[in-house]
Fold:
Amino acid sequence: MFGFWKTWKALEARGIMGINRRNADYVLKYNKRSLYPIVDDKIITKERAIAAGIHVPELYGVISTEKEIDRLDEIIGGRSDFVIKPAQGAGGDGIIVVADRFEGRYRTVSGKIISHEEIEHHISSILTGLYSLGGHRDRALIEYRVTPDQIFKSISYEGVPDIRIIVLMGYPVMAMLRLPTRQSGGKANLHQGAIGVGVDLATGLTLRGTWLNNIIAKHPDTTNAVDGVQLPYWDGFMKLAAGCYELCGLGYIGVDMVLDQEKGPLILELNARPGLNIQIANDCGLTLRTHAVEARLEDLKARGVTETVEERVAFVQEMFGHIPPVEG
Structure:
């Protein structure tokens, strides 16, 4: 017991945030329960983002009842690729990504061939709440399939890599790139076997990787190094994430974004209870950074000053960046 306590105190000294601290000091403190539907329901998130002029994957249609499943052909139209997902799903469960059509059927990104009837059955399961938070009845979204930017081709297996940035009161405090693997089934979900790679807030350069809670240097499927990759549009991603505070009103969130080959940065979803593995990927504790932001907020409040999105991003890049930004 003493050994465990000693280890925990060492982690605390490094600013490692545990789940109890996250829940008590950040989720409960900064996130009003009345605002949770804005982030827990992907349709509401998408509508809010569009109204704010923020780019999201295009929504082709929504199916809310069993009867509306008959509209699937109409919604899909002549498209050969699209995504079906639960509006209130979590962890990537319940998502089908169709990449092509084949002999009257559909081919998923993993190469599996499925029939129209199987898709209808899957949508029916979504509506019953099989994949939703709390098991409540849900709605199914049919939306644009993101095509990952070519920058990820050498360090990702199938699927779509995404960028998670944790934001406290509009200040990005830590970032991570999540890379699909064969083990994760092409999904950017760490619990299913995706890779988490830390990202320098100042420059958008990738740092080291973590896979199944182990530190790694190379992607297990492509064998290419995951560190030292320059993510394009990095300042744009940072400003998008920072602006999500005004978008949803929640003070402690995880912002999940993707980089589409044609459309550039897009917001996928917001999370009111972001996971903590991002600390392993960055070899850094969240608490040291969140305390610095809270001190900044106290100082600004005392001076009667409110910072813009650009000023908030500049502050965290200077405060938390591993590598100084390149001038010029």
Remarks:
- DSSP finds ten helices and 13 strands in the chain.
